[in-house]
Amino acid sequence: MQPFDASSIEHFAAATGRPARCADRGVAAPFTSPQLFAARLRLGNGLGIEVLVPNPAGREGWFVLPWSAARDALQPSLADEALVTSLKPLLAAGTELQPEHVRAAARLAASTGLAGRRVRHAGLARQAAPPGVDAMRAFACALDVWLPTCPIEEDRRRAVSLVVRVSAIADAATLLKADYAQRMAWVLDGWGLLAILWRLTPAEARIAVLRRCVALAPPAAEEMLRWPACSALGRMPEAPPLAPATRFVASGTCEAVLAEWLAAS
Amino acid sequence: MNPDPRVLRELQQAARQASSGKLLRLANALDGLPQRAIAEGVLDAVRPRLRHLRPPRPLSVERLLFLTFDPLVVAPRDWRPGQGVIPRSAIMPMAEQLRAVEPALISAIGLRIAGAKLTDEVLAAEQGALLWPAALQTLPRNPPAGWADAGLQPQSFAEIARICATLWRHGVDLWRLRMVGRDGPPEASLRPTFRTIAAEGPEAVELCLGALLPYAAQPARMVAVVAGLNQAMAPPAERALDRYLSGMQPRLEGSDLEEMAMAAVRFALILEDLDSAVTREKPKRAQLLQALRMNAAQSCTERLEQAMATCLVVPLADLLAQPEPTDAAVESLERAAMALRGIGESARRLHASGAAERLFAPVLAQLTSLATSLSESGRGFLRADSLRLLELLAGSAVAEKGQRTSCSRSL
């Protein structure tokens, strides 16, 4: 793979601040190319697909690229292309993306075998629910256990911030579960991928993955904060800014996360 | 007690001739020996190979004691005074001395780390934080018992003790910096730590950097940060970098294919970082880096020549001949493809001779052709499998081209 050149996307618009609606925030996609892993997809103004990726300079905000530009700059894999192709009929009809759409498209793309046989089996297996409240509690707990061993103060603060956010997500999802399944899916969206990524990460790679998780953590939309039990999602502790060129997740790991994410229940 | 030199030479010779499997078993057996002198003597002869084979070495009190400065520990025959290094033969008498004055602590640490491996960095940090300050406090003024038996001169003790004192004093911080150094220079931690170290003088700065640089993802950047703290820091920091450069070796031969790919990628990145250390005042560094680059690129190309057939072409032919290749066999081939690509890209980054491209070309052509001829479904090796291999070997743009060709032919 060619080394990623951050300057190739820096001229695109940056989305800073809190997105107004969940649809503006976009849905996290289980991409398998390192630069796109857990990037978010949304319907653009021109009805094309837009992809939101964390600012590669480590600063706050997300770059918004039309998919056609992301193909040149971010080197999507064939499996990533298959996922986006599966979504095109929906978007052509002007349907705003929901987490369940991306999950269905990911399953379809997985069944092509382009992300490997393990992912194909997961795509063809009986449908399972995405990672839910239990996965979030386990994620928060695992971060909490790792925290005292983290050798860098700044990363400890990042981990603390992440624990608070993941715990708030779990609390909100618990209360939404019974009556608001779709809202719960939005609240949890993207976090399941990060929870699996953390679980699969060996001890020596935890710091790099923690930083990537912080960069990829989906922001809460304004719309969410008005939902019952979700106001706490707007009062999250600040994490120290990230350095540029935070290490990406390797494509083999992205595929392993995708396989687990499809098989989660 | 020193081993009989003739016996030691024979054992070293046998270790050198052992196959990889036997060497791993030998290292495991030697790690269990209480008498370290002979074990370390035999292992000295095969350390470069062991570095590639990476046997899971147990974490012992002796290893933990010198863990933060292992790059500064050398074989006894390579030790010279005034070089800022420690002979491996000093480890046992120093450790025994500490065991004698702190029996309870050493026993407790021994119990806590029993069965653990050197790779358990968190446990090493936790127990090192107890061990290193204790070693510093109980450092004797005179050579400990066993010093002469280890073949060490009494007059060498003061220098070795001074090096140990510096590195134990900063052991906790050095270990922390080493753990995070592989993610780039941890500037926020690096600056305050080296300000403290600098108060001890230039020798301490040079020693501590010498212990850290072999583990840093960006050694030149690390040196630049330290040298930039104040004018007095620059000379020892630059000396540490020169010493690190002079001892640098790609060491890419002989390891497992995937490990070699990782090592080659890492080495190419380190050399890119070290390019920034080449200045008009340091012209020799450019020559040294160029020699390292050529040497590493050649190792990569030689490995590609040898592994392309054995790890990719032949196993691919086997899979194509099987009516139902297993997932494990396909995944094993994919891992080999990924490793070969890593080695190929490193070869290109190190020295763009076009040799890697020439080696990849036939197999890429074969896979492109397979993408049009293989079935889309069934139990055999499928079109998606070949496209995926193409992507792993040459990237998504090439694979996409192959996919388009296969689609247009199937229409």
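Chain A has a mean pLDDT of 88.
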